[in-house]
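G.,

No rush on this.
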Amino acid sequence: MFDSTDVPATQAPAAGWTPEPEPGTFTLTTHAVLRTVADPLGRLRDFSGSLHLTSGPRTRLAEGAALLRSLAEWSKRSATSLNGPIGPHRRWSWAEASLDDVKIVREALGGTVNDVVLAAITAGFRALLLQRGEDVTNRVVRTLVPVSVRSDSERGVYNNRVSGIFPGLPVSIADPGDRLTAIAGQLSMLKGSKQAVAGDTLVKLAGFAPPMLLSVGARLAARTPQRALQTVTTNVPGPQFPLFVVGRRMVYSYPYVPIMGSVRISIAIFSYCGRLFFGITGDYDSVSDIDVLRDGIEAGMRELVIAAGGPPGPAPRARRKRATRAAPSRPVSPDRQAAVRSGKR
């Protein structure tokens, strides 16, 4: 769909294709029996490999201690107004940041790109909660952060080996530098605890459950209120060179991620051509103040740049609202004007 230059690529004519013969009953039965035997063996092999991710017992003890510390993070109280029933309609807004600003913050304050992005998002949620009058003292916003659990041999392979970690965004911290330090330390601990790998292992073990039980469990999980999780933040790295469609350059690429269950807000981030593009999805009825979150994210990034000794940057751009055009007035006859003046209908 996309080209790397403004000259559209010409596609070669498709080669001839002949479908394979339709398999018979015996072939289908044989393949089903083989899969029934081979799939559990493969899952056991993956599970046993997950139990031996490290070489020495000392390292395993350190990972176990980190896992216990990560579980202790769940004892922190979370924000309350971010969970609840959601309706059928959505609100969507967007924010932007520069990767050059992220580089300035990383060089001065440390952390990774993901740490800096989450610190800016934390500032946005802090602004949203304070605007709602909610107490943020010693509170966090629990978020799901998808991470890759591919092995070294799977680098460059596109598959679904993705699990998640659940950091608590420290909305109680007002200082941008301290906020970034807290997030960087927490993510480092979560990665060291192998929390994401443990989740991936549980997914593999799900292959041993009957499909009917899995479907019932999935429906039950979707209907159960998820009070422990307030949002989802997913960061997708994109190309840092321009892309073209039929000779036209793609200037912006704002992502969208849906909401479900009792999670009323989700945020996706996509990097492209030196810019970070945030797509913010919210429930229409309960997140009418979604622009407060959006402005808070951009303000949080500017705070980080200033704390890192960088330039303050330009003022936030005003979003132009779509103008509403009045319906054209129809000419009124003299008789109608006289009737209106006399009070007749």
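When you get to it, here's the other one too:
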Amino acid sequence: MPYTKNLRFILTVLLVLIYNFNYTCVWGLNLFNKKPVNEVYDEEADPKANSQAFPRQILKTGINLKSSVISGNSQQLSDEINLTPILRNIENLRSKNNSTATDLEGLVRHQQLNDEIQKAEVIINKTNLEIDFTLAEIGAERTVYGEILNTFTAERDKMVARSNQYSFYSNGVLWAVGEALDIPTNRYPNLSVPSGILGIIAGLAPSAFSLYAMHQYNGKKKTSEVEPNMLAKLFGYKTNPSIEYPDSVWKYLNSKQANKNSRFTRKEILINRWVSDSNIASFTDKNSSKQLDVITASVAQTKGLTIATLTARQEMLNQLASEIFKMKRLLLELNMVLTGEKSLLDS
């Protein structure tokens, strides 16, 4: 009948439109999440937001264990922790000391050498503990953020799975009923109307559930907490005793790399890296108070706590910890000066 043919034509057109709409949405989502073409990263260049799809290592220490002298960065750390004068004395006493000497002067020099080595060991051990002190707090924060992130992602995944479940069930049931009504239409033409209506609904229902699932992609959004983390001081926010940096670590982060005519301090290079890292998509502007309030957990922001911001915090804390860990490589070289395996750079 003409009425039935028209209804089937309309149904076909709607199904084609629905298919194209779903395809366009998925294509748009993939385009939105497409990683940028990776550029050669330059530590001295001003950062471009989310321009690095595959970040590379930064702030290399420049240590060569086979070299007879320490690296410039190790020498710099030695200066910052006031170790250099003691190491100079050790080198001087060691050059004059004769282990076979039995005279009083030789014994005095030997005792002085041991005293200076003990002083140096105290400073190196203290700096090492200050590094561990900082990393312990960063590790504790990463654990908390990881637990919250797991909760957010689990709830998001449940919502998406439930949406897909409803989509499959509704699509199958509606199409089954619609086709069942379509079978006797040669004897009962009026059944083509409800059959067509159910077909339309069967096409629209999965699309509605798919749109809902896409809406859940970023998970729930809650007001961000006010509990400053180890990122706060890096961006000039107020701190409390539990998130303060020891002097040796803070000086290291705020100094420029040795043997490089650098525009930026280590801290600034690290922040620029975060801006350019596309894996930290929610952080694009180091001067944005709205972004920094949430990332540093210093100021509450409505709907600020999300999967994206928790991921950003974790990645930034991971990279911060990695750079602080490199101080231990420098301490190894300084310790090698104590044992006479290496020497300081010429002053």
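The radius of gyration is 32 Å. Residues 244 and 327 are 18 Å apart (CA to CA).

Enjoy the weekend,
O.
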